[in-house]
Amino acid sequence: MNLFNTENFSDFAFKWYMDRGKRSKLMSQPTTQHENLSKFLSSHDHLKWLHDIERQSFYQAFDTLKDLAGKEALYLERKKTLLSLAKLALLASDESDEDETIQILEDITNEQTLITHQETIPVEVLQSVSVDPVEMPPLSPEQLIELYISDVNRDRDESDFKKALDVLHIAYTDETLRDQYEALRLRIWSQAILVDDWANVQADDPILVARNTVFFKTVEIALHEGFDLALYMPSLESFLNCEELKTAGLTENPSFQFLLRAGYEQILRTQSDMDVEI
């Protein structure tokens, strides 16, 4: 190919290889053609990162792999692989400073954690919303949250609501997403309330009964893991003004109001005692 060392001819030859599926031939060009091949592959990201690795341009490979992972909408496994390769390429690179690298690695790890959450959703829950557990697409954080907390998860319990909150705190840290964060936080906790029948609590010690609800069991998990509940939970007023709870007839129910207020007082007291011990 060096006999025809013009960019136009190189592009013609590269396209010929590409169109005929001769990718191994395309990717095994001599060093003298690497620059031309890089230009040609700039519009073929699925191959560009391989060429960048060959040239030891690891940061460029990372950048391409991260972009491909962000765009992947068909297969969760492919996104998982792309993120792992992106992390390796970044670690092999020396083109970013330490603080930037740490932040990027943290972002990738968060995305990998979201993938793990999706992989552990029960098969029957995925199938109930027509998602193929074997070849499923990446789901958005909001979709993951809904699968944990909504009626499609018939066996949902406090661990599911805690997982939904974990997804929320991973995916909605950006201040520009604050409104979405607060709306989803309220929805998660409200759905936790709606799992149990608060309106008809009949017991000598209703507060003890309330402690056995999914809502307060989720609170206990959060306390045990050291979360600041003042930030982790919506305000009491948010619950009493929540449309979902209004529709369920709870916000005007004296028994529910009493149990929720008493529970909140206990939560704040417990949190305060734990802070003092620390």
UniProtKB/TrEMBL annotation:
What GO cellular-component annotations does this UniProt entry give? nuclear pore outer ring
Q: Which UniProt keywords apply?
A: mRNA transport, Nucleus, Protein transport, Translocation, Transport
Major localisation: nucleus
From the Swiss-Prot or TrEMBL record, state where the protein is found. Answer: Nucleus envelope
Q: What's an example Gene Ontology biological process for this entry?
A: protein import into nucleus
Q: Name one GO molecular function term.
A: structural constituent of nuclear pore
> In what residue span(s) does the Nucleoporin Nup133/Nup155-like C-terminal domain sit?
7-133
**Entry protein name:** Nuclear pore complex Nup133-like
